[in-house]
Structure formats: C-alpha cells, structure tokens
Amino acid sequence: MKNTPKRKQRNKPGVVLFTAVAVMLMLSILLTATVSFVSVNRTKTNDNYKSKQAYLTASSTLESFINQIQTDTAPTNDPTAKAQQKKAIDNLKKLASANSGKGTTTNVSYNGSNGKSDNIGTTKITVAQEGTSVANIVVTCETTYLGKTEKVAAHISTQSVTKPAEYTNTIELVGNGGAGYDNLNVIGDMAGINNTTGKVYRFTNNTSIYGSYLMYGSLEVSTQPLIMLKPSLVDEKQGSTVTISENLDVSNEFHINSTMARADGYNYVNIGQKLSTSNHMDVGSSGFDVDLFCCEANIGGNDYTQYGNFYVYKGAGAYNGDATFGANGQTINGSLYVEGDLNVTKSLKVTGSVYVTGTITGKDKIVCTASNIHEGAVLSKAGRDAKPQIPVSADAYVYYPEDFFMSNDTNVTTISDKYQAFYDGSNTKTFNTFASDWTNVDYTLTELIDLTGTGAKTPVTSRYKLRITSSCTWASDLSFNDYGNGSRILVDVSDSSGDIVIRLQNGLNLGAEWSPVIVVRNRSTIIDTTTGDRKYNCYFVSDSGSAITLNGIDSVTGKSQHSGSSACNYSFKGLKVFDYDTYVRMFDSSVLNNTKGNPGLPQSGFVLNPTSVDVAGSYRPKNSSIIFLFGENTTLNATDQSFFQGSFYSPQAIVNIATSGLGGLVVTDSAGGKMTVQCCAVGVVIANSFGNANTAFYVYTKPSTTSVMQNAKGGKDDSAFGYTLDRYDHY
C-alpha cells in the first residue's frame, strides 16, 4: 500500500459521472445496509486506455460513496436529523463488522442512459474493519475493465462522541479552595469554576487580567490590581465581563477598564452579593462605559469613580438592594438604580438620573438635576437595566486524566494503549534510549517555512542535541555532561509516530544546571478539515501508575469516578517547552544553530498574536498540540525562567509556575496594539489550584481540537455523530 495517494485528474474524458441513482445507492448502504445496483451516466471512454478507465470508474464510485456518507452525517442540532446521523453510522459499522470484520462486499452493475448494461467494467465495493476496531473502517472499490484491475480505498475513523469541550480561559481553577495571586498577569479570560460557597480569592501587587473574569466565591482586592476588559480571544465579536458570585471587597486601588465602547451583552461587572470599597475604585472611563450590578453596596474611604450605570438590586437572603455612598469623592458618570434604600453621607455626583424604589437619606448631598432624582420609583429591569444572570454552575468536567490513561472507550481517549505500555513492559524506552542511537544525536533539521505569512518559503535550519520520535519515559538517566546546560531536545510527531506520549518519571527533579529546551514539531499529515488541527498530538503525562480503577459515572455529579492514582511530584528549573513553528520564528539563526544554552530573548520583530484574527506583522499560533496531563495529587513546581507553550489539563493537581518566564515577548491585540511581557505560558492552565510568583504573564491559546482534552467536559448538552476521512489510497 502506498501512503501517498496517486490521485488522477477527473476532468478529462473517461470520468464516470454519477447521477441521483448513485446517491440512492449510498443511502441504501447507509440507511438499510443493503445494495442492489448503481445506475450511471457515462461520457465516452477511451477503450485503449484500460487501466485509466478502471481507475476512473473505481475512484468515482468511491468518491460518490464518501460524499454520501458526508451528506448523511453532516453536523446538525436537529434531533430527527441527529437520529438519522446515528443510524447511518451504525449501519456503516454493521457492514464493516460482518464476517468477523472482513466486512461486506457488493458487486455493482452500471446501466447507461438507455437502460441497458454498459461495458465499462465491473466493480466490487467492500466495507470492512481496519484492524480490530469497528471505529476504523476502510471502504474499497475494485474495478476490472477489459482485463485491467484498479483498486482504491478510503480510510475512515467513525465518531460517536460527545460535544467537544470549549476552552475559553487562560487560567481556570477547578478546586473548592480559595487562592491568592501576587503579580499574576493574564492575557485572556480567567475563572474559578467550582461553585463552592465561602471561597475567597485575593489579588495583590498589580495583578492584571486582560479579558473576562468569572469566579464562584468572594474577591478581596488590595495593592492596585487591574481588570482590562478586552474583546474575547475566542470570538473577537464578543466583549468581556466580570462576574463574582459572592462579595467584592476593595481595600486598596482597583481598576476595571475597557478597550471597547459599551454594547448590550458586555462591559459589565456583576456581583452576586455585596460591594464594599474603602480606598479608590475606578470602573470604566470616558467613552468606555462599564455598568456595575450588585445586591448591596457600601462605598466608603477615598474615591469611587464610574463611567456607566450603577445598579443595586435585591438578592437572595438578607440582600435587600440597599446602598450607602460615603466616600471622599464619588462620581457616577451615568445613572444610579437602587431597589432598596439609598443612604448618601458625603457628596455624590451623578450625571444621569437617580432611581430609588425605597427611601433616600441625604438627598441634599446628591449632586444631580433635581428633576432627575426619583424616590419611590419602579425599576423596569429590562434591556440595559436587566441584571445579568450568574450561571448556577460552570460547564463541569466529566473525564479526568485518569480516564485518558486507562479507559478502553475510544470515544474518550486515544492514548490509553500508549500510556499502559509503560507499565506492562512493552515500552521501556527512555530519552536515553534515543541518545544511544546516533541518528538522533546532534540532529540537524532544515525545512522550508513561510516566515512572513506571504506564502514565500525560505529554508530554516535548526539544530538539536537529541531527537525523540516515539512515546517514551523522561527519566533521570541522561548524562549531564552531554545533555545538561540547556540542551535542545526535539520531539518529532509524524504519521508514523502517531500520538507521542512522554511519561514524566515520578520525582523527576532537574535543577537550573539542566534547563532543558523541549521543541515539539508536529508534521502529521491528517488534518481536521473544520479546525485545521493535525490528528496527532504530543502528551506529557504524570507517572500515575497502572493501578487506577475507573469506577464509572457518578449518578449525582455526572462526573467520572476513579481511584488508585499514584501521587507524583516534579520540579524543574529553567525548563522551556516550545512549539516548533513558534520556536523557529521567535528566534534567529544564531539561536537555532545552537544545540545547547538558554535561547534568551525573542528576536526583534517577533510579535505573538493570541487573538482569533490575523494582525499584520504578527504570528498567530495554531491550536496547541502540546498537552500536559497530570493526574490526581500531582504537583508541578516550575521556577527560574521556565516557560511552557502548551495546555495543562490538571483538574485534580497543583500547578505552581513560580517563574519570571521568557523575557521580552511582544504580544499584540486584535487592534494591533503591542505590549512587551515576561511570559510564563502560552496556552491554557486548568488546575485544582494554581500558584505563581513574580511579575509574569500567561497568554491564551486553546488546545488542539483533536486532542483528548476535547472529550473532557463530556458534552452534557449535545452529541455528535460523524466520521473523519483520514486518507485515500491507490493500490
């Protein structure tokens, strides 16, 4: 079999054109699992070109078959159509699994326009399993024409999977405890999704979020943090919001600003309970209104300034919609709405109107046109004035890394066989195994790359001390003399390697003298036609053992249950992990040609674009194919200028990236604005708890849609039935 298909042109004489009767064949195969005949119209054929005619007949038959599968399994939200989707795929699987997986073969006859049989060859269509799983199917068309036989095949991966998970947060906390953040800077959204009451999060020392913020619990603010509402990095047409399910307590400067003019649906702060201020809070700015909603307000201390409307509405329990304004300097450049009672103890300037359902105390201290002050008002709570909903819960995760490690369900995971191979003795490879093969040592790679985004490709050479080409364990068995001092290690993902799973040996502890630089190159050729993501990925996994037991889905929580996961601890200093396509653009030839050493600052002119739109002069990485899966009770400590380009899925683990990261990285927004940052990670970080230190940034890039992370949330609202066309082959 040839891996690269020999596709011949179909726009020349001899191409078989299928009519609606051919479509009926496919419907018949998929929906009734039977087939009788195919009627075709044909153009004139060249009888002297027998092989060509046989090939054209076979390939056109196959292509029509595949097109019909695609039609019958097209994505849909209609329940009736979805049922037909599932029926079509189920019947295709029945055809393939017949005869112990050898499948079903049907002879096809061709009738011409006059209804008589045309002598353009005889064709057999076979639908069979590929390997041992009916999830993988090969459809073969074999045509014989005047003694010449040609055979073509399509390789299909069927899917009956839950709705893919969406990842919109740069940092997402899953645990039920609070957390403190010191100099944390997030480009993208941040969330604490565990709806456990009483949690307290703390922002100190210039913590900044450039995006949206959602948290269940209370937020305590001190030492000048900033939330800059920006367009969504997932969808630039959407805006951003701040949602806090319980209380917001501001004891020292807090700024919530926006880069967008206000529109319905975004630019708001929604506090589920009480807002308290004691020293300087700014919300919005001139021309960039940000509305604020809460259920009780106590504005005191020094300075409260807002551009936008201030709403105090009744809430659950003791929250009666009352508001007290007693700050030294307080201005609302908008309107004030209070559903309970309003008490003004110091001068309050309101440029719009004041609407109070209850009574007003200190009305003389309100600086506002008298006719615009309304006591005993009825609040419409409609349109802009409607309080946004705080979701009862976030989209909870169903599957955990342990499911990806141990499950036999291919709708959940694609890496369990490779993970378990580390424990059954069938994969004993380590990094040192590759170091023993001279073809992987001091490896030089030259590739044509479009560095400018113009389509013009230039040769780029990069050198590595070691090359990894298949799944293995990263153990502490490498020679320091050979592989210390910032050795560059290439992980080379390809069609032949499939997913590369790298187990981190429990207790792996590499000091600053090691400072390895891992570069992951993904050149698998099977591409998801919807997202453009490559089929295979690189996984760094915890050494959680093989004693893990999957105890099924909990009937109350709807989450997968497991036990027996071994605790792991890892410590890295100066570890850097790059995606190859970013690495060769970020650094110049003087860095790329070295096999050791700290790569240093990105080259002048490199601009990273984490947004969902192209920005001139910047590089926008594809969805990350580098995935870190850490099981329950795993702890990662990364310090001393460590940097990670990849996504962490560690919902029951601790991730501490207490590092100043990679210096001098220029990041752009969708409008072309630029900011130079110290960057710790480019991806998403999902953890039970998260620790940081130093002034460092985390930048959003979502994980590959072909990775196992797409199954993590379980798709409680929807399902998808369909297939992936992996490749065509010509035998």
Structural notes for this entry:
The chain has 731 residues and is mainly β. Helix content is 12%, strand content 40%. The protein has 9 helices and 55 strands. The strands form 5 sheets. The chain has a 26-stranded mixed beta sheet that branches. The chain has a 19-stranded parallel beta sheet that branches. A 5-stranded antiparallel beta sheet has the order 3-5-6-7-55. A hairpin with an 8-residue loop joins strand 34 and strand 35. The longest helix is centred in the first third of the chain and has 23 residues, at 50-72. The radius of gyration is 30 Å and the shape is globular. The model is unreliable at 1-47 and 715-720 (pLDDT under 50).
Task: State the separation between the terminal residues, measured CA to CA.
Answer: 6 Å
* Strand elements, count: 55
Give the structural class: mainly beta
What characterizes the major β-sheet? 26 strands, mixed
Can you tag this structure with a few keywords?
731 residues, disordered N terminus, 19-stranded parallel β-sheet, mainly beta, 26-stranded mixed β-sheet, 40% strand
